[in-house]
Amino acid sequence: MGLLPPAVKLAFQNETIQIARLVELDFTFGVERYWSGIHELQYDSKTWYPTGNAGSVTPLESSQELKANGVDMSIFLPMDGGLQKPRANFQDVSASEYKGLQAREITAFFDTEFQNVIHTIERRYAMDSLSYIVDPKQGASITLRCESELLSKGKRRVKRWTDTQQRNDHPGDLFFQFLSYLSSNVQVKWGTSGAFFQ
What are the strands, taking DSSP E only, across the chain? Predict the structure, then answer.
């Protein structure tokens, strides 16, 4: 709890805290919002629909190296319509309606009545792939794979100061052309006469 603000630590010590996980999916046909409870939730001036035990988000991974760790967001839709909100037919959703678009996952700490937000931890992802399994007798299990915010539409947000990266961003720009020689044992000669390097 070392990274939490002092007021939040105090609340954790003196109050009963309710922990909720919220997911917001920004499809082209509309935004879908779900949370881990059993009743509708008003948060951020929006309505979040309950999934109860039918929804899950894979645990967050951490690593010391720069690694784009993603998550899987899953929901089970029973045939009896036990969940409250009508949804799009996910079997007909094409990649163009979600791939690369934003998914937001929020871990929120509420008071006992879910009226006041004590603290939130928010992460943003890019939706990558959607898979589903349909059982005519039971229902449909839908899993959405989301990439880390380090990735967006197949391109890394993290850029390196390299000649290749510079030319990709600015064709014809030779600013970093000889950058590799700075970390090598090659002697570089600057000036107007003689070899440029040897």
Answer: 18-27, 30-35, 41-43, 46-50, 55-57, 71-78, 102-110, 117-135, 139-147, 151-152, 155-156
